[in-house]
Amino acid sequence: MNAYLECPTIKTKSFTIRLIRKADSESLFQCYNDERAVCLMNDDNCDFGFYVKSREKMLETIGYWLDFYEKQYFIRFSIVDNATDKAVGTIEGFVGETGVLRVDISSDFEKASCLSEIFEFAKDNFYEFFGNEDIVTKAIFSATERRKALNSSGWEFIDKYREHHDYYKITCKK
Q1: 9-171: CATH architecture
Q2: Are 160 and 113 in contact (CB under 8 A)?
Q3: I need a labelling partner for 167 at 20 to 30 A (CA). Which of 28, 39, 91, 98 fits?
Q4: Per-residue pLDDT tens for 146-161?
Q5: By C-alpha distance, which of 143, 132, 137 is closest to 165?
Q6: Residue ranges of the domains in the chain?
């Protein structure tokens, strides 16, 4: 499967995970303009922080992510709440033996139950999508719900990944 040629859409119990769309900008602005959510996001090695001050900047950021998808650098998926059909966050994946899973989600969904579903989605699909044998993700000390979800889903705390701290790791299903 080449996820860059035909980006998959996967439905979980609570979410539909699909390629980000410009039409998601209004609902995603609520996530990226939420300081409680942004402080838990992983912007290690990113060109800019994730706090978005305006709707125009959110639309520009989505354009940036779609451009990188077309260049096959990474895929930014929207996390769409099945109950409301609104994007409540994003996740990112890319090709490589070890993938870095970025999970950006509205503070209303920063709950162990929601996050566990997203972590399971990545573990179950990222090998097929990207060839990731392992995935790492960041969860800072104050991200208690995120850490709870990672621990209950079988992720191992490794602390350091490259030069950054607060990382967890899991082996993907092949």
Answers
A1: 3-Layer(aba) Sandwich (3.40)
A2: no
A3: 28
A4: 999 999 999 999 999 9
A5: 137
A6: 9-171
